[in-house]
Amino acid sequence: MQFISSTDGSSPGADGVTERAFRVGEVPGMFWTPTGANTGLPLVMLGHGGGESARHPGIVARARHYVSTIGVAVAAIDAPGHGERPFTEIVGVERALQTTADWRAVIDALLNEGVASGSIGYWGVSMGGVAGAFLLPEEPRISAAVLGLIGLERLEELAPRITMPLEFLLQWDDELVPHDEGLALFDAFGSVEKTLHANPGKHLEIPAFELESSARFFARHLRTTSSVG
Length: 229
Prior knowledge:
With about 230 residues, the chain is an alpha/beta fold. It has helices at about 55-70, 90-115, 125-135, 180-190, 210-220, and strands at about 1-5, 15-25, 25-35, 40-45, 75, 115-125, 140-150, 165-170, 195-200.
């Protein structure tokens, strides 16, 4: 694992969050930690959506919020064909499988570096949700997850194997994923503890308050100290 650059969390506007770019093999990513607390932290991994990257403003804002409010480390990587990674024609299942392999290599690297503990959560919606659905059954080190904006199609065999505590986000007026498909997927998950968060609105109109809800969820399941009300 190679850390390429770093932004000091004590600088003006950094709000106590240190940001570092990294590379694991050919996989580029970003890593955020509370300044001065850089070892053995619970880890939340963020899976970005289609056309985005680890540096997308929404991913960066979410990462900084989790770091500053619940004291975790946060990592995001560029999916194949996104961000700094070269164009690729692989899509769908093939891309999800490659992303799973990429994430598992990054987890190994972060644990070997000692910058993250074995307490790991995953957040991903839309394309990041599909990637998560493939990753979670293969990665027993992940103990809690937030997924959303995906349906049952092509995930029928994977959903029952997802058994960790889960929050699932569904937009009732989603123009890309019919809500009956989302409900069917939620029903198929094997998790004993699973909570459905269904809100009105289209695919990209998840309410802002769901950010705080996911932070509380990760604080509870990753045993962090939360300042979220």
